[in-house]
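Query structure, 729 tokens:
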């Protein structure tokens, strides 16, 4: 039950807290970050007493405050919490607190719900803060136009809603991400200066260059150290992130961190009684660098009721094995070989539906091609299941080729201006999911496929971006409506098929966010399976997502996307740390390579509980040519690390390297896992511990492993070494 709050309330969990003072007209944030502990009445009064700064020259005649819903009414001249207008009027919102609910959970965390009223436009604003036991603070915002007799009939045009939280003076360095096809989540850093640093995504999805998780911290923060604050916008469409610092600060705080959906003009028009629910923004703080942030988000995701609970099956996806060349005999041979090497889920990729001999035609015609598949997919699906594997299928429901029966029969279902679409991308347009007939057609088509063929898994792709996302004769913007309709489509399909699993794919990693993951079961990190590129892509995808949600497949050499030649042991080791799979024609592999693949699937099944339930750790190294990453069991009893060399270095050796996540006072033993073959070494021999660890377990104390560090071997480029650790009684 909600409690009657004191004047100052807090949400606390896992060493972090949010403190809000219920001032009027609008509450203000006193603190967000490190847990201040159980505050007495005197403590709370002291916090409030120190929450006002000086009155500045040439400024308001009272101290500036940063509230939960900042507007110009309080002298805030940064980005407002919302802006809009009522037929050109009501441009100076003055919200006021109307109601408060505050709940504390016994396991830590709780909820704070603030209701504000804005009389000028007749708005009710609900601002809900939920502190998860992981310490992640999720903020949900809703704006409703009151339906009253005196309400003006004109709609209120809501043009932006932004969730904002304050940052302290020491948070002066920004880390976010950019990218492109086959190079997603490339990190970029910059110092925070005065002004507004904004990232806007106008692609109809987060995009391959998604900011993903915007982090601000102490200068030089790394994986294992530094105080950091971060935000993620859980939305699968247009997005807006910002970090903002004004010369006068934000109350006694220095700057603000925020995000929300990027709204197109005229997209959200609230008639009396209408509501807009903004995407949830997830905030997290950590005193232990990026690994501390990742641990909070991984814990949050693993606690969801919808999080996968069964072991993640090893996958073989047919794309890089056969491409569009679908032949039943060849695919049956591929399935036989997949079962032999230990695959648990066989996925038929693009090329199975009507007219689909290339990417130029067929999208939208979701029936099995009768020419290529005269007996449907049943012969393949039945054989896959008889071999002990699940059967999965690739689809791209949100898209349509102009060369398709669907586009010819229903041109009005194609998303775009009434005057006609612009250029195609990947030879396709977008299907207007906000059209109820198009939405119903897709649900019926997908439902029939899943029913007919007993499909356990859909690889759900979304290849092109949304340009000119308008529909209807008046070209009404519908980027928001497209995402809402896609969510409803996935939800409806899963309601009909509760056991169905779905992967979010979008030309690789172009739609990875916690909005889509609220209804799907994993993401495809990238179309690039080149292990050198994948090392970085997977490392940074793991900043938000735990390994079991990230598809990590190995492909052939040379790579399909980069033409890079690579050693199969390196490809296999790279793909081990996630939801593992194969993207290769393994019927063409020799006996030696097949033996390593079989050993790899067995190793993955053995280590899967650790890999998919442990704590992700990454070492801070001064040399970008090498990486050390791993997973440590939650109780610290076991760990697996990968020592990786990408290129050569100026240094001849790496020296001692600490293994993160182990206890300094623990007793351990170490061995090298060589089932996938040993890497190529750029040295004559040693180090001595390595020589012994190749033969069996070597006892080593935590003081050496976690504090002094292990002298690491020098590998040749594009090589990786697997190191297993277990704690002694």
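Result returned for the query:
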């Amino acid at each position: 039950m909600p409690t009657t709050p004191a004047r100052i309330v807090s949400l606390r969990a896992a060493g972090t807290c949010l403190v809000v003072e219920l001032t009027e007209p609008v509450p203000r944030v006193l603190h967000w970050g490190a847990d201040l502990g159980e505050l007495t009445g005197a403590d709370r009064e002291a916090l409030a007493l120190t929450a006002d700064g000086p009155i500045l020259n040439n400024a308001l005649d009272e101290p500036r405050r940063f509230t939960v819903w900042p507007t110009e009414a309080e002298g805030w001249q940064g980005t407002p919490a919302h802006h809009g207008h009522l037929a050109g009027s009501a441009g100076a919102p003055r919200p006021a607190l109307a109601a408060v609910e505050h709940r504390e959970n016994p396991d830590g965390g709780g909820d704070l719900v603030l209701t504000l009223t804005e009389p000028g436009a007749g708005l009710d604003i609900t601002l809900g803060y939920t502190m998860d036991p992981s310490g992640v603070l999720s903020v949900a915002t809703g704006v409703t136009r009151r339906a009253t007799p005196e309400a003006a009939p004109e709609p209120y045009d809501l043009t932006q809603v932004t969730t904002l939280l304050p940052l302290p003076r020491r948070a002066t360095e920004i880390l976010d991400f950019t990218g492109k096809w086959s190079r997603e989540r490339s990190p970029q850093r910059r110092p925070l200066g005065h002004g507004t640093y904004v990232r806007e995504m106008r692609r109809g999805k987060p995009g391959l260059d998604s900011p993903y998780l915007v982090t601000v911290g102490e200068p030089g923060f790394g994986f294992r150290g530094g105080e950091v604050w971060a935000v993620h916008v859980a939305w699968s469409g247009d997005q807006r992130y910002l970090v903002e610092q004004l010369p006068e600060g934000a109350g006694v705080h220095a700057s603000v961190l925020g995000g929300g959906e990027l709204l197109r003009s005229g997209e959200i028009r609230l008639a009396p009684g209408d509501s807009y629910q903004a995407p949830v923004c997830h905030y997290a703080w950590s005193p232990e660098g990026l690994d501390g942030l990742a641990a909070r988000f991984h814990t949050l995701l693993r606690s969801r009721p919808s999080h996968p609970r069964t072991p993640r099956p090893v996958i073989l996806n047919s794309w890089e094995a056969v491409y569009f060349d679908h032949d039943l005999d060849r695919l049956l041979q591929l399935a036989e070989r997949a079962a032999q090497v230990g695959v648990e889920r066989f996925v038929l990729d693009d090329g199975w539906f009507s007219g689909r001999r290339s990417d130029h035609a067929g999208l939208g015609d979701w029936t099995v091609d009768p020419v290529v598949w005269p007996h449907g997919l049943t012969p393949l699906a039945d054989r896959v299941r008889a071999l002990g594997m699940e059967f999965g299928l690739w689809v791209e429901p949100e898209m349509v080729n102009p060369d398709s029966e669907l586009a010819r029969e229903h041109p009005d279902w194609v998303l775009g201006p009434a005057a006609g679409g612009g250029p195609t991308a990947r030879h396709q347009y977008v299907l207007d999911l906000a059209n109820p007939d198009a939405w119903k057609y897709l649900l019926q088509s997908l439902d029939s496929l899943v029913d007919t063929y007993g499909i356990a898994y859909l690889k759900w792709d979304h290849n092109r971006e949304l340009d000119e996302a308008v529909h209807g004769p008046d070209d009404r913007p519908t980027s928001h409506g497209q995402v809402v309709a896609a969510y409803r489509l996935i939800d409806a399909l899963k309601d009909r098929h509760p056991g169905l699993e779905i992967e979010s794919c979008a030309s690789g990693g172009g739609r990875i966010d916690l909005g889509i993951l609220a209804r799907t079961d994993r993401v495809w990190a990238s179309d690039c399976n080149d292990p050198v590129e994948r090392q970085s892509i997977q490392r940074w995808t793991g900043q938000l997502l735990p390994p079991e949600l990230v598809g990590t497949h190995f492909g052939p050499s040379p790579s399909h996307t980069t033409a890079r030649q690579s050693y199969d042991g390196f490809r296999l080791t790279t793909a081990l740390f996630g939801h593992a799979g194969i993207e290769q024609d393994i019927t063409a592999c020799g006996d030696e390579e097949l033996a390593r693949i079989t050993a790899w699937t067995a190793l993955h099944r053995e280590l899967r509980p650790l890999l998919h339930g442990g704590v992700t750790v990454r070492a801070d190294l001064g040399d970008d040519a090498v990486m050390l990453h791993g997973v440590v069991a939650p109780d610290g009893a076991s760990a697996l690390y990968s020592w990786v060399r990408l290129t050569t270095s100026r240094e001849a050796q790496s020296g001692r390297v600490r293994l993160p996540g182990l206890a300094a006072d623990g007793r351990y033993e170490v061995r090298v896992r060589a089932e996938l073959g040993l890497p190529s070494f750029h040295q004559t021999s040693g180090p001595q511990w390595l020589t012994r660890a190749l033969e069996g377990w070597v006892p080593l104390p935590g003081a050496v492993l976690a504090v002094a560090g292990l002298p690491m071997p020098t590998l040749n480029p594009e090589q990786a070494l697997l190191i297993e650790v277990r704690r002694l009684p």
